[in-house]
Amino acid sequence: MTGDSKPRVYLIGAGGSISFIGDFRTDYINYSYRNRHLTIEQMLDNIPEARDFAEVLPEQLVNVGSANITPAHWLQLARRINDIFALDAQAAGVAVTHGTATLEETAYFLNLTVKDRRPVVVTGAMRPPTGMGTDSDINLLDCIRVAAAPQSAGRGVLTVLNNEIQAARDVTKSNSYRLETFRSGELGCLGYADSDEEVVFYRSPARAHTVDSEFDVSEVEELPRVDIAYAYAGADGLVVNALAEAVWAASWPPAWAVAARRRSSCRR
């Protein structure tokens, strides 16, 4: 890379609110009814400023609402990012657009399965690009800027929304309506994509991630299904029994199912 070269950032689109097209400017909630999306190329065209500081290579993985993202998409995304880093030594980082409802899950999965120290940054939007006061453009611009910044490397997978850079391991969506919804609890954000166009970090995650993670999905074709039963005051055995029946019927070897039922009967 020459001194005059811009950092090369791969921009992968997965859909979500950041891409949805609503019918009117105050439609902040129900814009998904027609399932219309901007493509990742159209989204990039909306922020020509990004090309001032990065060579951006867009590609569309999928274009769906975040509720339609599945573990199969996680595997597809992780493999594509690992391929990018393996095949392009000049890639500075990868930026990913995603729906906010499952953004934290996808980001954390990538935090465990991407095998490179170069930055992977995930963003979304709380207001669609057709909405008044949308955060789509600035979040996308910040995502590319953080992915292009050399100081972002080695910190694991990051998210950036509302100018705040968060660690994928810590961040969670806390509100369905507010722009400042992504929070890291008592740990706080890692830094900011500031208004002066600087990317500033104040801390780094200490827990194992990416190249130091023990997870490797390079040979994995399908992730196992894991269902979760919540415990709460007044809960009975209905959900646990229903999940157990479904799992035994769907995926357990017959001998396991027989043994599990026998053990369950003995405990009653």
From TrEMBL:
MF annotations from Gene Ontology: asparaginase activity
Stored PROSITE patterns: ASN_GLN_ASE_3
EC nos: 3.5.1.1
CDD domains named among the record's database cross-references: L-asparaginase_II
Reaction equations catalysed: L-asparagine + H2O = L-aspartate + NH4(+)
Ranges for domain L-asparaginase N-terminal: 8-205
One family name in Pfam for this protein: Asparaginase
Domain of life: Eukaryota
GO-annotated biological processes: L-asparagine catabolic process
Family from the record: Belongs to the asparaginase 1 family.
Protein name: asparaginase
